[in-house]
Design a protein that fits this description.
Order of helices and strands: HEEEEEEEEEE
Strand content: over 45%
Radius of gyration: 25 Å
């Protein structure tokens, strides 16, 4: 009597498991929200090309006279792994960096506390900083 009951329960469990497995990978029903502490997108070689993460406050690193604040950071990297785009947001404001092919070519936009800055720098070292008067 126990063997048929165990067989029936095993078959029922396998059926439920199979149904849930098919439902979870069905491409027509993507999840509404992805939740996690970080996200990395890799290329076909497994190299990270984009990431979004939360960097915790670091009291060991002093930045502008204060411990480096907690920051949410989005990075887009080129094929060599160099971050060509960085977008960050933290307690004191936010910033955007768009880098060229070679250091130190970049455009930087900062909005920190009550100040805004636009910095343009060419590979030859020429730089222009724009701040509201």
């Amino acid at each position: 009597m126990q063997a048929p009951l165990l067989s029936l329960l095993t078959a029922l469990n396998l059926g439920i498991f199979g149904y849930q497995s098919v439902q979870s990978v069905h491409p027509g029903h993507p999840p509404d929200v992805l939740r996690g502490r970080a996200l990395e997108i890799v290329d076909q070689r497994g190299k990270v090309r984009a990431s979004i993460s939360i960097l915790p406050e670091d009291p060991k690193v002093i930045w502008k006279g204060k411990p480096y604040p907690e920051t949410v950071l989005l990075r887009l990297m080129n094929a060599e792994g160099r971050p060509n785009v960085k977008l960050g947001a933290g307690k004191t404001g936010s910033g955007l960096l768009i880098a060229g092919a070679d250091d130190p070519t970049y455009i930087q936009v900062l909005a920190e506390e009550e100040r805004t800055t636009l910095r343009l720098k060419n590979h030859d070292g020429r730089e222009r900083v724009i701040r509201p008067e």
